[in-house]
């Protein structure tokens, strides 16, 4: 990889193509490269392994962030997974998120992520409220949910420079 910036848009890929591997991407980042990774709620093994290498962990496939108190009543499908996030949940960094003083609520729908505290370069751009949790929205909850993905971070950056 001989670029300064790499953007990976991934979903269910179990591995990267060609000579690109988790080790190769990690080496690129260690050498000062910038990496932006996006994906859907059913992430493959490759992106999960890459995230772990850099201090992040995604919840299981088919799970989503759920909040019964802060969901969009017009766009939500009844599972309370279209989360309405207030500006208080955003990182106070105008360069990354803009002027939060005049910002309207942000919508989020997706998988939960944890940024490990050992990752000193993490930027928690969007944090869930204390009423949010991660679970499979199409599965009935028949027991108390003790998810380690409570207080999840739906969106996070890590600055590797």
UniProtKB/TrEMBL annotation:
Name recorded for this polypeptide: Dolichyl-diphosphooligosaccharide--protein glycosyltransferase 48 kDa subunit
Subunit record text: Component of the oligosaccharyltransferase (OST) complex.
Lineage: Eukaryota, Metazoa, Ecdysozoa, Nematoda, Chromadorea
InterPro entries in the record: DDOST_48_kDa_subunit (IPR005013), OST48_N (IPR055457)
Native organism: Heligmosomoides polygyrus
One BP term from GO: protein N-linked glycosylation via asparagine
Annotated metabolic or biological route of this protein: Protein modification; protein glycosylation
Cellular component, GO annotation: oligosaccharyltransferase complex
Metal-binding found in the keyword field: no
Keywords (A to Z) from UniProt: Endoplasmic reticulum
TM spans (from-to): none
